[in-house]
């Protein structure tokens, strides 16, 4: 029976992460063609800060509207081609293997400009007491 313990722990941990994400993401962030998979969430040594890693998959032609985060976002594109529009900078299209740094509070948007599903690994270094994502008005 003991060989099932690590698997049970992983399943429970994943459920807790999913529940935590559901409470920190606004309902409007869950849109058709966008899949967010929480990978990990950990407190940092800096008081009140946490690191969150999420895989984001965008269907072809799908855009995720203008939004911001209460901390920095570090992006690594896993697959496809994604156009990022960060306020105050010209839009940039990144492909698998490319990276992008988005400063804390910067309003930005992303769009899959390819013909296949595009994926990114998003790492957030954010304040724990604020929603992970806020849609821009």
UniProtKB/TrEMBL annotation:
Keyword Lipid metabolism: no
Residues spanning the signal sequence: 1-29
SUPFAM superfamilies the UniProt entry points to: RmlC-like cupins
Record InterPro entries: Cupin_2, RmlC-like_jellyroll, RmlC_Cupin_sf
Domain Cupin type-2: 55-119
Protein name as it appears in the record: Quercetin dioxygenase-like cupin family protein
Highest taxon, organism lineage: Bacteria
Entry GO MF terms: dioxygenase activity
Cross-referenced Pfam families: Cupin_2 (PF07883)
Protein species of origin: Bradyrhizobium stylosanthis
Keyword terms of this UniProt record: Dioxygenase, Oxidoreductase, Signal
């Amino acid at each position: 029976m003991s060989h099932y313990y690590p698997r049970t722990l992983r399943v429970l941990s994943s459920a807790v992460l999913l529940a935590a994400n559901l409470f920190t993401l606004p309902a409007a962030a869950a849109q058709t063609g966008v899949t967010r998979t929480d990978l990990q969430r950990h407190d940092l040594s800096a008081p009140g800060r946490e690191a969150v890693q999420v895989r984001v998959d965008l269907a072809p032609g799908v855009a995720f509207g203008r939004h911001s985060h209460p901390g920095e976002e570090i992006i690594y594109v896993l697959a496809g081609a994604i156009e990022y529009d960060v306020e105050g900078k010209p839009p940039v299209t990144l492909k698998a293997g490319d990276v992008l740094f988005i400063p804390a509070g910067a309003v930005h948007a992303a769009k899959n400009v390819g013909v296949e599903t595009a994926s990114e690994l998003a790492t957030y270094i954010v304040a724990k007491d604020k929603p992970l994502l806020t849609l821009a008005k």
